[in-house]
Design brief:
The protein is of the alpha+beta class and about 700 residues long. The chain has 16 helices and 25 strands. About 40% of the residues lie in helices and about 20% in strands. A hairpin with a 3-residue loop joins strand 1 and strand 2.
Length: about 700
């Protein structure tokens, strides 16, 4: 990948830790092996071996600092007694740019040299076995794949100097000789606003006719990797102007100063700029092999936009948002013969949806930038949010039932008898509420779009979220702007008051469902507190209705109003106590899985089952995910599916995401998803699972198990 990791998949092939695997190890994306610089090693000597990577076209691995995304190759060594291995001598990486991001890595063929120290106690005639557990993160412009491999090399021990080994010895020797090392260069870094002024002098820089330069920091976040670097040469060194990164501090700055005359490791101490490093010619950026945004990347972005729009449209049909959208549809009917009001309400509803999606996207992207494992629906993983939503749904239902009214205009027959905030404010709030409750329904077409959005650069990610919101609001926006369609809706009348009362019951149902989710998150003790809070809130709403009715009779219901306020405050306080009790409760139990014998999901459980020759059906679910529950009852509870599972000797693993679980979040991201449900079918001998549809039928599951 050239800058962004869109998805992360399971490796096609890997060697388990502890297995001695000589020679090249291969997957469809990378071939790797340990290769020696010398034909043998002598007792007490230092030799070099290299991890040779042959990376498939269109893919790449990463340098020690991967840049804005990705992960460096890691090695864990298993060596004979007395043998030690140094860190990798990293060759200079190439710079891989995509949109606003910059990564550092390798493509094609690359050798990563590692010095190996042989003890003097090694005896000629014996063979030293070097084994390393290597982890390569291999990325394309669409996905990233972690590729674990166990690589081994047998090195004979002999007396005397060894010749270079064929065919890689000369190349490894050249890399070792040219690898960036400290070279007596003195450096300083000075913070000037949003810039870092790096000055370096001494050593090979004195008198060097340097024309090109680039600085590769060892640590991410210290500089803006994608920003241009400008420099100037002086008689004793050079000056380089860098853009400060989000983690730029007044501490030292270490990295590789790469020039057209050589590359050296430097550590710049904080301090005033050094003398003799300016006044000469301007320096150009070091020649690079920069991958520019490709048509494929643009096409992936356009696909994500299209899928987001389609997913937003489908979201209108999902059960979790139906109560809110039904109320909005009735509101449009109320304004059917007032085109100006219909247009105003339609635009306000769309604005509420889009603003809410932007807020959710901003929170998700901020948490992503902070390194948090987060996904779509994260707000419903919080017992406090679930409790608040349950009480909001209760209040909306009581409002629709006529217990109290919001807005004096609601008392007038011509201004819309539906229970909503008056005018555009009510339409905007309805849009907000629709988005908040939409999270449990990760509709088809949304999964891929949201998965891509959570790894794209932030401007592209925000565009995907806005397109998703536009899809959700589009039907209502089109109707509100179409006089012909509005004219076909029935005129306001008594039927609307009856519809108003009827719509209260889906809201009560939504509140009950949220209470059930809250119970799964926090247990029955927390539920008891929340039910008491709900009772007090209903009493406060009823008292508010009494006060409103008294004011219409020109009375002054001071005592009733005070009681309503006091009871409402008590209700909110008790709801807070309930949320705190739920947060402190033990994690929720695994979600219902029907008659199938389920075990908790973990990567280790998957590996253990497939290693024993069993297929594995993985169900990543959550109690607040309505689509998940429909699938579990319609497909995964089928006796036919249970029979197919028994015949296939398949294991059934359930990952419960009802409360936050970073391991499940990472697994979702591995497969390019940002939310549940996700259904994976692993087969023995295949590392990559089959991803089943988000809307399951028993036939889909049975056929997949038979393949």
């Amino acid at each position: 990948m050239t800058g962004v990791s869109a998805t992360v998949s399971q490796p096609v092939q890997s060697q388990p830790t502890g297995v001695v695997a000589f020679g090249p190890q291969r997957t469809e994306r990378i071939e790797a092996e340990l290769v020696p610089m010398s034909e043998w090693v002598a007792p007490g000597s230092t030799t070099v071996v290299a991890v040779r990577q042959k990376i498939a076209p269109g893919w790449h691995t990463y340098w020690r600092n991967p840049g804005d995304s990705g992960g460096a190759t890691s090695l864990i060594w298993t060596l004979s007694a007395g043998v030690t291995a140094d860190p990798i001598l990293w060759p200079l990486p190439s710079r891989q740019r995509l949109m606003s991001l910059m990564n550092y890595g390798y493509s094609g063929a690359v050798l990563l040299p590692v010095p190996i120290h042989v003890p003097s106690t090694a005896r000629p005639g014996e063979v030293l076995t070097l084994t390393t557990d290597a982890m390569f993160l291999v990325c394309s412009d669409r996905e990233c794949v972690p590729e674990p491999m166990t690589l081994s090399l047998a090195l004979p021990v002999r007396e005397g100097a060894a010749p270079l080994a064929k065919p890689w010895g000369e190349e490894i020797e050249r890399l070792v000789e040219t690898a960036p090392r400290p070279a007596g260069i003195e450096a300083r870094v000075t913070r000037q606003g949003g810039q870092l002024i790096l000055t370096a002098t001494g050593g090979p820089l004195i008198g060097a006719d340097i024309g090109q330069v680039y600085f590769y920091p060892f640590d991410g976040g210290r500089i803006d990797h994608a920003a241009a670097q400008s420099g100037q040469r002086g008689p004793n060194g050079l000056t380089l102007t860098l853009t400060a990164g989000k983690d730029a501090t007044q501490t030292e700055l270490s990295g590789v100063l790469a020039t057209d005359k050589g590359a050296w490791e430097i550590t710049a101490e904080p301090g005033a700029p050094l003398a003799g490093v300016q006044g000469g010619a301007a320096l150009k950026p070091l020649d690079e092999t920069t991958a520019t945004p490709t048509k494929t990347s643009a096409w992936v972005f356009l696909q994500a936009l299209g899928l987001a729009l389609l997913g937003g449209l489908v979201l209108n049909l999902m059960p979790c948002v139906f109560p809110v959208l039904a109320m909005k549809a009735a509101s449009l009917s109320a304004a059917a013969h007032d085109p100006a009001r219909a247009r105003r309400d339609g635009l306000a509803f769309t604005a509420g949806v889009l603003v809410s999606f932007l807020v959710l996207a901003g929170v998700l992207l901020a948490l992503r930038a902070a390194g948090q494992a987060i996904g779509w629906g994260f707000q419903l993983q919080s017992p406090g949010v679930v409790a608040a939503l349950a009480l909001v749904m209760l209040l909306v239902g009581l409002n629709l039932s006529g217990a109290f009214h919001v807005g004096a205009g609601l008392q007038n027959a011509g201004s819309g008898p539906l229970s909503r905030l008056p005018g555009s404010a009510g339409a905007f709030f309805t849009g907000v509420l629709a988005v908040v409750v939409a999270a449990p329904c990760t509709a088809p077409f949304m999964a891929a779009a949201l998965g891509a959005a959570l790894v794209l650069a932030w401007p592209m990610a925000l565009a995907v979220f806005l397109m998703l919101g536009l899809g959700l609001a589009l039907p209502y926006q089109v109707i509100s702007l179409s006089p012909g369609l509005l004219s076909r809706l029935p005129r306001p009348g008594v039927w609307m008051e009856r519809l108003k009362g009827l719509l209260a019951f889906p809201m009560y149902g939504a509140a009950l469902w949220l209470l059930w989710v809250f119970t799964r998150q926090g247990g029955v003790d927390a539920l008891g507190l929340l039910l008491t809070a709900a009772l007090l809130l209903a009493l406060a709403a009823w008292l508010t209705g009494l006060a409103q009715a008294a004011r219409q009779r020109d009375e002054r219901p001071i005592l009733t109003t005070i009681c309503a306020v006091v009871v409402g405050v008590l209700a909110l306080g008790l709801a807070g106590v309930a949320a705190g009790a739920a947060r402190n409760a033990n994690a929720a139990p695994q979600g219902d899985s029907g008659p199938l014998a389920a075990q908790p999901w973990s990567a280790a459980a998957v590996n253990a089952a497939t290693a024993s020759g069993r297929p594995v059906l993985v169900n990543l679910t959550a109690d607040w995910c309505v689509t998940c529950k429909i699938n579990e009852r319609a497909a995964l509870s089928s006796p036919r599916v249970a029979k197919a599972m028994r015949e296939a000797n398949a294991a059934y693993l359930v990952g419960d995401w009802t409360r936050r679980d970073d391991a499940i979040t990472r697994e979702l991201q591995v497969h390019g998803r940002s939310g549940v449900p996700l259904y994976l079918l692993y087969r023995p001998g295949r590392a990559e699972p089959e991803i089943l549809p988000q809307l399951l039928t028993e036939g889909v599951v049975v056929d997949a198990l038979k393949d």
